[in-house]
């Protein structure tokens, strides 16, 4: 078989052209063909078919397209399904595009591989010399062509050797620089162009060409180089780097204020802030250079540009590593900027650093603030970067610069009059995935999506992770993310030391906290998910940290961007902050005060005092020397105002403020005692957390029984990570309390992990409802004997134990025992509804329809009076089952209503049961095709619910339906694969009729073969066979 995509899309089989019906089939085959021999993920195929908004049934529809495509192609095994996705089992030569690529690459590679060195070195004269020159030119042309077929890193490796031998080769220099830039090595790319320029001057006595100058300028400014300016189109594009969307300033004019703030293209700084451009400005002066592309902040850029349309203070606030500096740099790059990096400046030196940054000349006896204000007015924008540790000084200076466009970046706002705050949160998920994939040069995948989510979608963390992914691989990185603080430790050389490792970012923020705030943050790290203020008070407060202080301290942590809002009234720690705080909970004393040391030590731990760190220190020394008067008459009182407490945090010689905790200092005994106290504090906090979670689960269980069930389910879903953690580290009593309280949620929502918690009551303190949870887990997994044993051991047996025993008896067709247990469910009204419905089902399936209708009607009246959605759904399900044969129209209306009510509260049990019953009614009355289509959704619901027992019961209904539509072979295969089970008389009769009809059409010998195959079919594959049979039957019906 051949697939042709160069030109009109065509498929040719052994018997000639193959006609494909529909654009979806063609799109699926085209994508599989372009990856021939390699799997294509299901998510990628879905994105190709529905790029904007995939429907909820996308996976099922994709399976249908693939099934029809297989049938149309008619080659067994041509399209296979494996864990990584679908694979088209063709060679690359069978797909014209892949064959074309291979030919181009192979011929260029073959030509380049023949080159062993300069030609004819023994014969330097004519006529050999001209031939040698021609061959060298041909080789370089072939090499450039070959390099163009390689990824950037491979292209750089191929070009390097030839360029090193002749750095005067201009085209090679531009191409190599482009490859290095595209691979993320902008510094190396600039070095290549510098070496070329030096070689041309030294060896040829010439100035570098205009193309070289344009390439250098493109790298320095981060602007795309055109083909005309960079020598060749490929080299020019590569110099700019993939996805780089920064451009230089527009050369002339001063548009009206704010004229294009909202209209500029995303990420284009000269269009985002046109009101600030002046012809005499030198754009970008002072702005930190970054050579990588800038992704995912288009909306924030527009917001910042809008704020900068008018003079005044704008504070860009967010957690460390969120990209505050980069956002500001990219937004103001088109204008002349005074940029002051305060990262290594302590509060007493802040004004001196700003004075130097804005070029202020401080005359004797003049206040530095006045000189700074006068100098700042010469700049369209003044940026004070990294000010979280100098907030008092920055706040007082901002008061004096009201007429200046002043941008301050910090982890918290200055809280001064007139301040406009732009809070910068994590990236959107799509932007986070794009950033990781571009930096790591890997395709998008579910694993990538999980990596960036677990990194809180923080740009710095994603960039650090992408660096490691290039070395370790995505899967290995994903497997090691629990150790993210130590794993993500390879940041940019020469960058801010605080941003070279993930640990350094969080360590800086943590080191700025006062002892009480640090202690609260460590204690909040016991939460696995979100929490309310009340929960924080319950868990974090004790004799050392009074409950009355928790709310105010929590608000301070939110202001400092260390705790994030997580919905109305709820908060959470970023994962990186939680990891560091948890680590610190085992390494600091219980008072919360860490051993203090200089910030320089923190910088050294962050990655060493590299060249950039020394340069910043040099600039700060120059600031002090150039503005000596600033220290004497600064106009800013050190330690004064609302940030005065921070004055005690800084210390030590030089400019580096005192930083986060260091493990040095103190005696060995002191360290041991501190560790013991920290461990005791952690254990006490965990105990309070577990107790609070048990109490919360019990309160939510009560709400599960009333009209507020939907809200209760949502709260339990949100609380589940913390409930899981409380169960894992709680006492035996706590575990049993949790299991008992979560029975109703686990049963209704079919959460088998939660139901399994009931095993704690087997070996620990006995609790009837916890044992009922364990029994329900066994019932759902098909172990009826174990379920009966566990529920029967509950003393005294409450309504949950009787419910499980009734369900076990119902499935086992023990009508008398089932009725006995259902009638014993006379506790609360919701339990009474379940008992009435259970008995109604027994009566209905035993042929006692009138009694069943009466019982279900009584249940409906009671459920409606209660107002509990699950009870109302269950009652309507029971009445629908009872009326299925006598009044099918009313039965379907009731069952559809029951499924909707159950779905509204994630009651997976009765949503799936109601859907199954509705399909069964439709299959017995009227056209089976609609019922068959609906069964696809029923299978999905049962697979989602995870109840093996009732899933098998639903598949028995499918056997009857498949026989009705003529899918006899699959029906007999599924029938043989299902575990043996007792069935009620009416169902048994329907199954016997279906088996007889299929056997008559297939013959006894074929049925025997199918039964042998079915008996060997793995349980997990039965549902797949059923889904495929449904798709094929529906496709035949449409054909």
Automatic annotation (TrEMBL):
Entry superkingdom: Bacteria
SMART domains, sorted: BTAD (SM01043), Trans_reg_C (SM00862)
Keyword Transmembrane carried by entry: no
Matching Pfam families: BTAD (PF03704), HTH_77 (PF25872), Trans_reg_C (PF00486)
DNA-binding residue intervals: 1-90
Alphabetic keyword roster: DNA-binding
Alphabetical list of PROSITE patterns matching this protein: OMPR_PHOB
Family annotation (InterPro entries): BTAD (IPR005158), HTH_77 (IPR058852), OmpR/PhoB-type_DNA-bd (IPR001867), P-loop_NTPase (IPR027417), Sig_transdc_resp-reg_C-effctor (IPR016032), TPR-like_helical_dom_sf (IPR011990), WH-like_DNA-bd_sf (IPR036388)
Ranges annotated as biased composition (Low complexity): 225-242
GO MF: DNA binding
GO biological process, one term: phosphorelay signal transduction system
Residues in OmpR/PhoB-type domain copies: 1-90
Region Disordered: start-end pairs: 225-272, 620-672
UniProt family annotation: Belongs to the AfsR/DnrI/RedD regulatory family.
Database matches in PANTHER family: HTH-TYPE TRANSCRIPTIONAL REGULATOR RV0890C-RELATED, REGULATOR-RELATED
Protein name (Swiss-Prot/TrEMBL): Winged helix-turn-helix domain-containing protein
Record lineage: Bacteria, Bacillati, Actinomycetota, Actinomycetes, Micromonosporales
């Amino acid at each position: 078989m051949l697939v042709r995509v160069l030109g009109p899309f065509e498929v040719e089989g052994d018997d000639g052209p193959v006609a494909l019906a529909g654009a979806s089939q063609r799109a699926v085959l085209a994508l599989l063909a372009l990856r021939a021999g390699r799997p294509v993920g299901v998510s990628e195929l879905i994105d190709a078919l529905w790029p904007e908004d995939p429907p909820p049934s996308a996976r099922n529809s994709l399976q249908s397209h693939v099934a029809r495509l297989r049938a149309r192609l008619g080659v067994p095994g041509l399209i296979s399904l494996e864990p990584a996705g679908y694979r088209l089992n063709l060679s690359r030569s069978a797909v014209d595009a892949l064959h074309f690529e291979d030919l181009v690459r192979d011929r260029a590679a073959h030509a380049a591989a023949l080159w062993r060195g300069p030609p004819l070195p023994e014969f330097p004269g004519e006529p050999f010399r001209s031939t040698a020159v021609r061959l060298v030119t041909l080789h370089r042309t072939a090499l450039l062509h070959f390099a163009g077929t390689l990824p950037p890193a491979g292209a750089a490796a191929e070009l390097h050797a030839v360029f090193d031998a002749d750095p005067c080769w201009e085209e090679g220099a531009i191409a190599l620089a482009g490859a290095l830039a595209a691979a993320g090595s902008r510094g190396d790319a600039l070095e290549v162009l510098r070496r070329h320029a030096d070689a041309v001057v030294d060896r040829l006595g010439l100035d570098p060409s205009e193309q070289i100058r344009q390439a250098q300028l493109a790298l320095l400014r981060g602007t795309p180089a055109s083909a005309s300016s960079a020598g060749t189109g490929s080299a020019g594009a590569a110099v700019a780097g993939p996805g780089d969307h920064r451009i230089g300033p527009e050369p002339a004019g001063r548009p009206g204020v704010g004229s294009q703030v909202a209209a500029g293209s995303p990420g284009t700084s000269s269009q985002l802030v046109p009101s600030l451009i002046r012809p005499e400005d030198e754009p970008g002066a002072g702005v930190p250079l970054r050579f990588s592309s800038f992704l995912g902040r288009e909306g924030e850029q527009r917001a910042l540009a809008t704020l900068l349309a008018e003079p005044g203070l704008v504070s860009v606030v967010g957690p460390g590593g969120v990209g505050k500096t980069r956002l500001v740099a990219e937004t103001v790059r088109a204008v002349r900027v005074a940029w002051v990096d305060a990262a290594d400046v302590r509060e007493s030196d802040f004004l001196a650093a700003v004075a130097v940054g804005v070029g202020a000349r401080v005359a004797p006896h003049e206040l530095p603030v006045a000189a700074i204000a006068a100098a700042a007015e010469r700049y369209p924008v003044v940026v004070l970067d990294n000010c979280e540790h100098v907030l008092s000084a920055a706040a007082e200076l901002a008061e004096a610069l009201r007429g200046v466009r002043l941008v301050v970046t910090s982890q918290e706002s200055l809280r001064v009059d007139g301040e406009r705050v732009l809070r910068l949160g994590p990236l959107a998920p799509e932007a986070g995935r794009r950033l990781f994939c571009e930096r790591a040069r890997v395709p998008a995948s579910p694993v990538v999506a999980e990596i960036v989510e677990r990194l809180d979608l923080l740009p710095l963390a994603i960039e650090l992770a992408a660096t490691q992914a290039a070395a370790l691989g995505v899967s290995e990185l994903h497997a090691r993310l629990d150790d993210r603080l130590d794993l993500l430790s390879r940041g940019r050389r020469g960058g801010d030391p605080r941003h070279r490792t993930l640990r350094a970012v969080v360590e800086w923020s943590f080191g700025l906290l006062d002892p009480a705030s640090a202690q609260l943050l460590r204690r909040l790290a016991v939460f696995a998910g979100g929490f309310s203020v009340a929960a924080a008070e319950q868990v974090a407060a004790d004799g050392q940290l009074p409950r009355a202080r928790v709310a105010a301290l929590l608000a301070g942590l939110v202001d400092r961007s260390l705790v994030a809002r997580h919905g109305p009234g709820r908060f959470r720690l970023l994962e990186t902050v939680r990891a560091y705080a948890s680590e610190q909970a085992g390494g600091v004393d219980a008072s919360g005060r860490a051993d203090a040391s200089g910030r320089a030590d923190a910088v050294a731990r962050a990655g060493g005092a590299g060249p950039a760190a020394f340069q910043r220190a040099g600039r700060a020394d120059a600031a002090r020397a150039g503005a000596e008067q600033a220290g004497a008459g600064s106009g800013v009182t050190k330690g004064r105002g609302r940030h005065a407490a921070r004055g005690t945090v800084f210390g030590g010689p030089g400019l580096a403020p005192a930083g986060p905790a260091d493990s040095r200092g103190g005696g060995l005994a002191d360290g041991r005692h501190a560790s013991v106290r920290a461990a005791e504090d952690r254990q006490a906090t965990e105990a309070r957390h577990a107790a609070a979670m048990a109490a919360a689960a019990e309160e939510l269980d009560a709400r599960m029984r009333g009209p507020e069930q939907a809200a209760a389910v949502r709260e339990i879903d949100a609380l589940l990570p913390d409930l899981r953690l409380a169960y894992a580290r709680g006492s035996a009593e706590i575990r049993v309390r949790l299991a008992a309280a979560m029975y109703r949620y686990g049963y209704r929502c079919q959460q088998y992990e939660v139901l399994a918690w009931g095993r704690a009551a087997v070996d620990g303190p006995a609790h009837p409802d916890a044992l009922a949870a364990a029994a329900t887990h066994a019932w759902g997994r098909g172990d009826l004997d174990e379920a009966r044993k566990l529920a029967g051991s509950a003393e005294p047996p409450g309504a949950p134990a009787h419910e499980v025993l009734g369900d076990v008896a119902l499935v086992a067709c023990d009508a008398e025992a089932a009725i006995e247990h259902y009638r014993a469910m006379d506790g609360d009204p919701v339990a009474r509804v379940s008992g009435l419905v259970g008995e109604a089902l027994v009566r209905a399936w035993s042929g006692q329809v009138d009694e069943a209708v009466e019982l279900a009607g009584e249940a409906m009246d009671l459920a409606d009076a209660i107002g509990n959605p699950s009870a109302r759904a269950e009652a309507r399900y029971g009445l629908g089952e009872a009326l299925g044969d006598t009044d099918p129209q009313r039965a379907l209306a009731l069952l559809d209503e029951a499924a909707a009510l159950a779905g509204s509260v994630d009651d997976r049990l009765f949503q799936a049961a109601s859907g199954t019953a509705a399909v069964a009614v439709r299959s017995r009355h009227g056209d089976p095709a609609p019922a068959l289509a609906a069964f696809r959704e029923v299978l999905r619901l049962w697979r989602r619910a995870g109840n093996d027992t009732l899933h098998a019961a639903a598949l028995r209904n499918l056997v009857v339906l498949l026989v009705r539509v003529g899918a006899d072979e699959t029906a007999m295969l599924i029938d043989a694969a299902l575990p043996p089970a007792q069935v009620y008389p009416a169902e048994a009769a329907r199954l016997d009729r279906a088996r007889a009809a299929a056997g008559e059409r297939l013959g006894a010998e074929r049925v025997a073969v199918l039964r042998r195959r079915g008996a060997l079919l793995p349980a997990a594959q039965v549902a797949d066979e059923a889904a495929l049979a449904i798709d094929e039957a529906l496709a035949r019906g449409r054909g």
